[in-house]
Amino acid sequence: MSPNSSSVTIAEQEKNGEAISFLGKTFFRPEDDSTSFLQKDSLLQEANTIYQTDTNDLNSIIWYGRRLASMYRFRDAITIFSAGIIIHPEAPELYRHRGQLYIITRNLNAAIHDLSKAASLSMTRTIEIEPDAIPNKLDLPLTNLRFNIYYYLGLAWYLKGDDKKAIDAFSSCGPFAVNPDLSVIETYWLYLSFQRMGDKDSAVSLLSTVDPNDEIIENDAYLRTLLMHNASLDVVDLNGIIADSITNPIELYGIANWYTWRNRTAEASIFRYKILSSTDWTNIGYIAAEADSSRLLVQ
Predict the structure, then answer these.
(1) CB of 204 within 8 A of CB of 233?
(2) How far apart are CA 281 and CA 264, in angstroms?
(3) pTM of the predicted model as reported, rounded to 2 decimal places
(4) How far, CA to CA in Å, does 186 sit from each of 27, 87, 117, 210, 268?
(5) Which parts of the chain register pLDDT below 70?
(6) N or C: which end of the chain has fewer CB within 10 A?
């Protein structure tokens, strides 16, 4: 039986959770406000109706899976993408989307397998815009298939702690970073990877390419973080208004790393704790802080 809004799997997964964290915590579906929930549920019902008319159609499979994921039904979405891969084993889109969900659900080895497969299958593909599941403020899709494949592959390797492979994957994003929003994401993760690997020269060189005047539509937290690093985070006061006013996991994670690189472990722990005290467990900043904390426990 395919997942749908009345499926018995809803109750089961609400009970069992959608993911287990790297620290052993069970994650349950976040709650949207009523307006967002109704909007997403309506889109899910529409996607399900289209999917049921032809469960073999690639586009219908992609959008049904994406609509399930937008409702935080990640396991159901993985089931749909997995069924689609049986029908369309050469479609990189299915591996790309399932790979992203494997990252969210903390299955990094499966994510690396899928995203590496997607990269191989998409080698002859050009830049193909990926429509947003939830449009941004300008209703302007910014990402494309090949950027997303390499970006999520880089994230999976980064979360595994393999900075060399993360750098290789993030660097492969370059030809497909066709707007400032994508460039600033690539730069952020490359910068963190170089710093963590100890290649400070390459990290500093990257900062010199950051333009504070870039017109950013979605990813302003990445730009703010890089600009903070460029200006030196010595100005950050743990008890001051700057630290207290920052809530975005991406910015908090960047600050935590700044302290980590300077062996100021107590301050780094404070910022990681602030991230992990939130409920935003699907955010990549949260996932990265969680992965770092997990590695620290076994050192």
Answers:
(1) no
(2) 25
(3) 0.92
(4) 28, 33, 21, 11, 23
(5) 1-15, 232-244
(6) C
